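User: My instructor asked us to take a sequence, write out its structure as tokens, and then describe one feature of it. I'm not sure where to start. Here is the sequence I was given:
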Amino acid sequence: MIVPEGRWMLVNAGEKEETRIAVVEGERLEDLHLERSSHETLVGNIYKGRVENVHASLQAAFVGIGLERNAFLHVSETVGEGEEPYHQPQRGRPPRGPKRLIQNLLRAGQEVIVQVIRDPFGEKGPSVSMEISLPGRFLVLTPLTTKVGISKKITAPQQRNQLRAIMRELTDESPSNVGFIVRTSSADTTGQDLKADFDYLQRVWNAVEGRAKSARAPATLYQETELVIRTVRDFFSPEIRRIVVDDPEVHRRLCDFFDTVMPRFRDRLELYDGSMPLFHKHNLESQLEQLNARTVNLPSGGSIVIEPTEGMIAIDVNSGRLVREANPEDLALKTNLEAAREIMRQLRLRDLGGIIAIDFIDMKMERHKREVEQAVRDESRRDRSQMVVLPLSQFCLLEIARQKTRPSLQLVSHDPCPACSGTGIVKNVESVALEVMRALKSTLEREDIAVVEARVSPDVAGYLKNRMEDLAQMEQRHKKRIHLTPTRELASNRVEFSCYNLAGEKIFDFVR
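Assistant: Let's start with the prediction itself. The structure tokens for your sequence are:
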């Protein structure tokens, strides 16, 4: 099967433990969605929870929703009794009305309905919001308001007016106390498709409300659909020419979904039954492997280096071998423009969120800085995650705040290295050997110890052979024995000590 030009969606669901969905353009990976059965997302789930405690200092509450860790509810995601959903004021404008304080909005023991907006990761529980929304294919139901809005990405006045007229007709026919947002994917859809989504979302919300009245907190009121249906619902667009699925059961469920929601695109579904794995056939596995690399090469010879840290993501842009431009300013501009496009692609593919700082190559001309900044903004429009892009600074640093809803690809697919504890570096042999010598001196000072056995890697043992005279002097001075035991089972930066008394009884072990 030769992939024609255009955008395709490839669904790899053959392995029960992991589902992967790739959006490709030609044979270039443009978007990736991955979910494992061991790391299923909670984002979108709705719970009836109980406020466990309210922290005025954090301006947040912790809500028990039936999970191991309580959920985090910030004041900006809280809706007080009788309030409309709260929206942050625009930058530079003061907030309207009195200051909202979490202690005035919630109390311990209160039952609330919340929706997960960010998965738990590390030691943090999930983040939740009281601003509930139910997404469909073309509409989003918003139960806390009765207003109808149109996606800002639908810019044509004629389309916006047409959609408003359709929605006015639907709400007049079926009055309700909920609101709707018309999604970007509705731009060229029919009134019949909108009505089907309108009726479906109201049925789902009525079921959620019914459960909320009868269930005791904590309770699950609504669970998001499986990854494949969810991704197709949110990311399919008429520009996607084919959706190729390698699992018959998933293909059948997608057929049912298309028949119900958008039958006119049903013929774009295709079941792949080839013997070669789907992602291998389209040369995607090698591209996926590159997402684990620290350095990403650019087409003209430059590179970007991606360094995730505890508090932010640092990205450095290097010109590398790109020296064809005679003018250093032109060289910097060309490399930075390439880097801007690739960085935004990597953020999508790796699902990196939080604060991102990009160190572009220095440029002197103001118009060049604005050109790079605009390239970042243009590429950010392809990303469905909410994003704030700040202007390029005097030192060509650009900061981005990207919405973080779930753990990054690296956190899902990798564990910290047991040798380096995730730092990426380990102590060299000389440093470890010096630590062994110091630890032996300290341990031999104890009166109840007669023998110390030190188990080290062969490399460290080889280095310590040059210090055998020092070890012998240590034994004579303390009148105690030292056993040095090389073992291949230990990493070069790990040392295990066992201490014995005169009777040969082990007193204690410790590891450095």
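For the description part of your assignment, you could build on this observation: The chain is about 30% helix and 25% strand. Try explaining in your own words what that tells you about the chain.
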